[in-house]
Design a protein that fits this description.
- One of its GO terms (biological process) is tRNA modification.
- The chain starts with a helix and ends in a 17-residue tail after the last helix.
- The longest helix is centred in the C-terminal third of the chain and has 29 residues.
- By secondary structure, it is mainly alpha-helical.
- α1 crosses α6, α4 packs antiparallel against α7 and α6 runs antiparallel to α7.
- It contains eight helices and no strands.
- The chain has a single domain, classed as Ferritin, core subunit, four-helix bundle (Ferritin, Up-down Bundle).
- It is globular and about 45 Å long.
Length: 203
C-alpha cells in the first residue's frame, strides 16, 4: 500500500467536491494560504525541536521536515510572484485550532497528541494536493504532485513518532482526532482556506 492509499485509510473522509470547485475558482487565495501553511508547518516542527530537546529521533525528523517545508514555502512564493499574486497576511481557518482543542495538557500525552495532530494535518494536505491537481494548469498540477512524496513522509514521520513515544497503543487517541477532523472538514466554514471545511455555496 503506497502512502496515498494509506492516507485515505487514515482519514475518515475525502475532501468534498464543493471544496475543490471553490478552490478552482479561488486559486489566488489557495496559493497565498498554501504559503502560510508551509511556513506554519516549519514553525511547528521548530517548536517541537525547542520543546523536546531530549528526543533524538524527534530532533532529526523535525529538522528535516522544517527544512523541506521552508523550501516548499519558497517555491510557493515563486509561484505567486510568477502569477502576479501578492503574498499577504491572511486569517486562518478554524481547522488547526479545532484539532488542537483535543490535545491533553500533561506530558507525555501532550506530545503524543501534538504528533497525532501533525499527522492529520500532513495527511489532509497530501490528500488535497492529489485531489485538486487534476483540475489545475500544468505548472501548478506538476508542483502539487511533486509535493505528495514529502508530505506523505511527513505524515508517516509524525505518526511513527507518536507511536514510538507512547509506548502503548494509540488507536483510541487517533480515533478522537479522526472524528474531530472529519467534523471540521465536513462542516461549513466561514473562510475558504487550504485546510478549511465546506465553503459557502458558489453563486
Amino acid at each position: 500500500m503506497d502512502a496515498l492509499n494509506e492516507i485515505h485509510e487514515f482519514l475518515a473522509c475525502e475532501t468534498p467536491q464543493c471544496w475543490i470547485d471553490y478552490a478552482i475558482q479561488n486559486q489566488d487565495i489557495l496559493l497565498i494560504d498554501h504559503a502560510h501553511c508551509e511556513k506554519k508547518a516549519a514553525s511547528t516542527a521548530m517548536t517541537l525541536m525547542f520543546r523536546y530537546v531530549d528526543r533524538p529521533d524527534l530532533l532529526h525528523k523535525m529538522s528535516r521536515l522544517a527544512r523541506e517545508e521552508l523550501i516548499h514555502f519558497e517555491q510557493v512564493l515563486e509561484l505567486l510572484q510568477a502569477r502576479g499574486i501578492e503574498y499577504c497576511h491572511m486569517d486562518s481557518s478554524g481547522y488547526a485550532g479545532g484539532m488542537r482543542k483535543n490535545i491533553r495538557n500533561h506530558e507525555p500525552a501532550r506530545l503524543i497528541d501534538t504528533l497525532i495532530v501533525g499527522a492529520f494535518i500532513e495527511a489532509r494536505s497530501c490528500e488535497r494536493f492529489a485531489k485538486i491537481a487534476p483540475y489545475l494548469d500544468d505548472v501548478l498540477a506538476k508542483f502539487y504532485r511533486s509535493l505528495l512524496k514529502s508530505e506523505g513522509r511527513h505524515y508517516q514521520d509524525y505518526l511513527w513518532l507518536a507511536r514510538e513515544y507512547a509506548g502503548e497503543p494509540i488507536e483510541e487517541r487517533i480515533e478522537v482526532f479522526r472524528k474531530a477532523e472529519r467534523l471540521l472538514i465536513e462542516s461549513e466554514d466561514d473562510l475558504f482556506r487550504f485546510h478549511s471545511g465546506m465553503p459557502p455555496a458558489i453563486s
